[in-house]
Write a structure and sequence with these properties.
Layout: H1 2-11, H2 15-21, H3 25-32, E1 37-46, E2 49-58, E3 62-71, E4 81-91, E5 94-95, E6 107-113, H4 115-118, E7 126-135, E8 146-156, E9 161-173
Antiparallel strand pairs: 1-2, 2-3, 3-7, 4-5, 4-8, 6-7, 8-9
Helix pairs in contact: 1-3
Length: 174
């Protein structure tokens, strides 16, 4: 318990990230010497929706970005709320998943609600999301500038998505 508390203070991990990742004591010690976990705490508000990039966790093969989304009282979210797309993911200004040969590498990506973190939170106006990006290159993201752009908050139906709030939320960190 003392190590977890100390690691939380050292890394500035929030409770949600600790709950989501459940790092062992050894992992906490290893991360203590790295820049693989960062407390970002950047917020962007558009059209009554505030998206906050809370933390990012990264290594040579993946990056997870943890977001909290809060809406005004007139905008409700459900378990089917998501973003229409992640329009940009760049590292040092280079688009990661461009269609041409000028891309960073192949990857899988997605933005979805973090079911583990939302499990204890039954709110139509506050949800947690995770953007997961994995790629096949062995590339260290430490000290690199990362950019992510999310577009349009949507509600997914049986056959289509409906935009519930137009917007573009841009995040950039090193």
């Amino acid at each position: 318990m003392a190590v977890t508390v100390a690691a939380k203070e050292f890394f500035k991990w929030n409770d949600h990230l600790l709950e989501r990742l459940e790092p062992s004591e050894k992992q906490q010690e290893t991360m203590q010497e790295s820049t693989y976990i960062q407390n970002i705490d950047q917020s962007v508000t558009q059209n009554g929706v505030t998206v906050t990039l809370i933390d990012s966790v990264q290594d040579q093969g993946f990056l997870y970005a943890f977001f909290e989304v809060k809406t005004d009282d007139n905008i409700s979210m459900t378990d089917n709320t998501s973003f229409e797309e992640m329009t940009h993911f760049k590292i040092d200004g280079k688009e990661v998943y461009a269609d041409d040969d000028n891309r960073f590498g192949s990857l899988s990506t997605g933005v979805s609600q973090d079911n583990l973190l939302n499990y204890e939170q039954d709110s139509a106006h506050s949800k947690y999301f995770t953007a997961g990006i994995s790629y096949d290159s062995d590339y260290d993201l430490s000290n690199k500038t990362v950019e992510i752009t999310l577009k349009n908050l949507t509600e997914e139906g049986d056959y289509d998505k409906t935009v519930i709030t137009d917007g573009t939320w841009d995040f950039k960190w090193t």
